[in-house]
Amino acid sequence: MSVYGESQMISGLGLPGNSNLETHESVDTNSKPYQCSECLKNFSLKYSLVLHMRFHSDGQPYQCTKSLKCFKYKQKLKTHIRFLTKEKSYQCSHCQKCCNSKWNLIAHMRVHTGEKPYKCSVCGKCFGHNRSLVTHMRFHTGDKPFQCSVCLKRFRQKGSLVAHMRIHTGDKPFQCPECLMRFSVKCTLVKHMRAHTGEKPYQCTKCLKYFTQKNGLLTHMRIHTGDKPFPCTECLKCFSDKSTLIKHMHTHSGYKPYQCPECTQCFTIKGNLVVHMRVHTGDSPFKCSECVKCFKQKSALESHMRIHTGNKPFKCSECTTCFSHKHSLVTHMRIHTGDKPYKCSECLKSFRQRSNLKTHMRVHSGEKPFECLQCHKHFTVKGSLIKHERIHTRVKPYECSDCQKCFSVKSSLVNHKRIHTGDKPYQCPECGKCFNQNCNLGTHMRSHSVVECLKNVKYLVKKAA
């Protein structure tokens, strides 16, 4: 019987030749007679040892004729050529995605099967790709084998180094087909494209809100969990995301990296600079659908819309009063706490609101920045100017619902309404008489002062006699 026949009897396979039979027998017997002299790793095939030795050597015998890039293995060259020609011969039977190599297809199939055969020996985490495990292990070892030749910064992954190098070269190879904006990293382009498509693939399991980015969902989830893992080292205040902490740290350092090119005003947050620039450009891109009023900030439009909807989501925990704006609730809470954080540097008088302090400071400076265009009279407060202008325009926007009498000032309407309601909230502490206006109480109080004064005069006259 021929050797070929014997090979068929031994393993049931047709192996045409002694060398093939020996190779096959070594696989069957798990024999690994070929050892690497560098790392002592063993192989069952001599050819596998030859390929492995290229890891230790700098030899790259396979060169691409188009890009002139060299490779240690022929299969790598073939995969590279498919990448250049965009040939994708291997198709997934589940989602019809095409891959440029068989190994990429096998790895891709694990997305559908959920198979994760590569397990970390340190933390037990499993991966679908061997290279993912290799990269992950560097978190435990601290190894960063890829170094930037310009700034010497090191990276765990080669892809991270390639992306980083574009900072130095300025290369942005990924272009948006919609707005032609360019990006240095493909994943950034993918995220950007969702702005055009409106795609939001990440959903919160608690409130079902959707997000365009995974990290946006992770940050949002902390609202439900209450987790704030980023503490400030200065004041120990905690934040749910790192970017907010970084912005907060600028308040301690006084660092304002974003400068307006028009007026040189500086800002700690880039978004604040963007909003500020609209002061110079006059741009108000956020338009109310109800009254066509425009706003420079989206948050301002959202707050304004509550006027139309009547929504007051911010509730006081002390007196259950509701507010449409959060800052109104914060200011209101100071009535209960007695907190007056804004102090005048001249007379040490304190105020609950910064705007009140700003207005008060004009008492010391004598500043009256608001001028009437009709009579050129000046005012310290804008509200006073608005009230004054109604003298010229004769506008009386506040109408009594009972007798239809109109008033130019809201406080006058409030006082007038007490005629109909009979409400007299101002009480004399001396005789208990009540009044519907504070000024009437003041006039009445003087009668007690006069009587008291006359009593004192009579006493002094008697004493002198």
List the topology elements.
Blueprint: H1 3-11, H2 18-28, E1 34-35, E2 42-43, H3 46-56, E3 62-63, E4 70-71, H4 74-85, E5 90-91, E6 98-99, H5 102-113, E7 118-119, E8 126-127, H6 130-141, E9 146-147, E10 154-155, H7 158-169, E11 174-175, E12 182-183, H8 186-197, E13 202-203, E14 210-211, H9 214-225, E15 230-231, E16 238-239, H10 242-253, E17 258-259, E18 266-267, H11 270-281, E19 286-287, E20 294-295, H12 298-309, E21 314-315, E22 322-323, H13 326-337, E23 342-343, E24 350-351, H14 354-365, E25 370-371, E26 378-379, H15 382-393, E27 398-399, E28 406-407, H16 410-421, E29 426-427, E30 434-435, H17 438-464
Family: Belongs to the krueppel C2H2-type zinc-finger protein family.
GO molecular function, one term: DNA-binding transcription repressor activity, RNA polymerase II-specific
Pfam families: zf-C2H2 (PF00096)
How would you describe what is shown here?
It is found in: Nucleus. Residues 34-61, 62-89, 90-117, 118-145, 146-173, 174-201, 202-229, 230-257, 258-285, 286-313, 314-341, 342-369, 370-397, 398-425, 426-449 form the C2H2-type domain. The protein has a two-stranded antiparallel ribbon. The protein is an alpha+beta fold. It is elongated, with a radius of gyration of 40 Å. Helix content is 46%, strand content 13%. Strand 3 (62-63) and strand 4 (70-71) form a beta hairpin.
